[in-house]
Q: What sequence folds into this?
């Protein structure tokens, strides 16, 4: 039995076993978390090597019925741990319980950004995210301030996770091959036990700032300030030059006048 890659699901099956093994071996069990959810395992190329590690309680979440049938036949060890669900719509606590679990996968490019934002919603439960993304997305997540690719996703992910760009993957190791290169990144939950400012306000300021990234922050957040008297040295800057810590500092200052 072979699963046919489905374009509408963004499926590109990884065929290079060395890369599968490399991803599995570089997964760190951050914060001693051995419970892992693989998203979109397809025909189990990565699944095989995650199982071989022997130290993981592996679960798989797949939306494609054909892939689920394949996984059940070829990976009986996952008998009750294959979840037929759409990750973006799923109640992850229903499938994974309340304890911590990490996320890994060769993520469908068409929803990879949404996967990261869904993981952010569960950040207190997800200590590690490791996966394959379109190279441009992977670089954006890991980017530092001062770059044109540094943006909302960079700041929000880096506010809660330490990001490491692991390696680049060429197109020819997939079936069918995508039109772009891929990048593998690892996100490990940082040491912040308590976020140092109002999280909702922080996220709002970051989004407002980058939604008008060509403007200064003063102009981008003026609707939020709503005519109140407020001065701060960051207001004359553009958002791409501010680090996570500086956005936190700005949020703390704004919070005092709201």
A:
């Amino acid at each position: 039995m072979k699963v046919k890659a489905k374009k509408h699901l963004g499926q590109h099956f990884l065929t290079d076993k060395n890369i599968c093994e490399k991803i599995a071996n570089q997964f760190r069990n951050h914060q001693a978390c051995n419970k892992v959810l693989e998203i979109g395992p397809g025909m189990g190329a990565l699944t095989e090597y995650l199982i071989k590690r022997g130290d993981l309680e592996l679960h798989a979440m797949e939306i494609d019925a054909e892939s689920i049938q394949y996984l059940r036949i070829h990976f009986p060890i996952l008998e009750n741990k294959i979840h037929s669900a759409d990750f973006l719509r799923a109640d992850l606590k229903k499938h994974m319980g309340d304890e911590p679990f990490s996320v890994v996968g060769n993520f469908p490019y068409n929803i990879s950004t949404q996967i990261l934002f869904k993981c952010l919603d569960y950040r207190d439960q997800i200590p590690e995210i490791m996966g394959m993304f379109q190279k441009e997305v992977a670089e954006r997540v890991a980017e530092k301030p001062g770059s044109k690719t540094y943006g909302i996703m960079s700041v929000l992910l880096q506010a809660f996770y330490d990001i490491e760009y692991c390696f680049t993957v060429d197109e020819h190791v997939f079936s069918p091959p995508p039109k772009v290169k891929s990048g593998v990144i690892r996100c490990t939950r940082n040491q912040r036990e308590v976020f140092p400012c109002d999280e909702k306000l922080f996220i709002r300021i970051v989004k407002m700032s980058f939604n008008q990234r060509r403007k200064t922050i003063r102009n981008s957040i003026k609707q939020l300030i709503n005519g109140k008297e407020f001065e701060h040295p960051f207001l004359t800057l553009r958002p791409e030059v501010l680090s996570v810590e500086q956005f936190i500092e700005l949020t703390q200052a704004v919070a005092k006048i709201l």
In short: The chain has eleven helices and nine strands. The beta strands are 13-14, 35-39, 57-62, 82-84, 102-106, 128-134, 161-169, 174-175, 182-189. The CA atoms of residues 148 and 220 lie 17 Å apart. The domain at 199-255 is CATH 1.10.8 (Helicase, Ruva Protein; domain 3).
